[in-house]
TrEMBL record:
Keywords: Lyase, Metal-binding, Zinc. Signal peptide: none annotated. Binds 1 zinc ion per subunit. One of its GO terms (molecular function) is metal ion binding. This is 6-carboxy-5,6,7,8-tetrahydropterin synthase. It comes from the Archaea. Its cofactor is Zn(2+). SUPFAM superfamilies: Tetrahydrobiopterin biosynthesis enzymes-like. Gene3D superfamilies: 6-pyruvoyl tetrahydropterin synthase/QueD (3.30.479.10). Zn(2+) binds at H31, H43, H45. The active site is at C39, H80, E124.
Length: 134
């Protein structure tokens, strides 16, 4: 059985995977939330994104590869962007919340690390964070 297939099979039950790996990155971006009294105006955040993966053995996840994944899929994609425009679908500007970002990042992460995603945390400030648990 291939290594990733083995992990996906073993990950069928998250509590059986004894090791957690956490990696974080930061990016600066702007967004707006249509109809919100304060956040309806374009404004920005210094976002922090942390991902937590479960693994079944020590050093089962290459940390350099995980850091590269974060840089490619999160930092390079979102840094210094207007998120509403970047993530527009069908020409409309969607509302982009931290919850939306966390869920989107988790779905991308699941493709690279099937069955291993425990949570994705997105923080707009050091005090305000959301966690998405797939």
């Amino acid at each position: 059985m291939a290594e990733k297939e083995h992990r996906a099979h073993a990950a069928g039950c998250h509590h059986k995977l004894p090791f957690r790996v956490k990696a974080c990155t930061m990016f600066s971006a702007a967004h707006r939330i249509e109809g919100h009294p304060r956040c309806g105006r374009i404004h920005g955040h210094n976002y922090r994104v942390c991902i937590v993966l479960r693994e079944d053995k020590p050093m089962g996840i290459d940390l350099d590869e995980l850091e590269e994944w974060l840089q490619e899929h999160v930092f390079k994609r979102f840094d210094h962007q207007y998120l509403n425009k970047l993530l527009a679908e069908d020409g409309e500007l969607p509302t982009v919340t931290s919850e939306d970002l966390a869920q989107m990042i988790a779905s991308w992460l699941e493709k690279s690390y099937p069955g291993m995603v425990e949570l994705v945390e997105v923080c707009e400030t050091p005090q305000l964070c959301v966690e998405y648990i797939p």
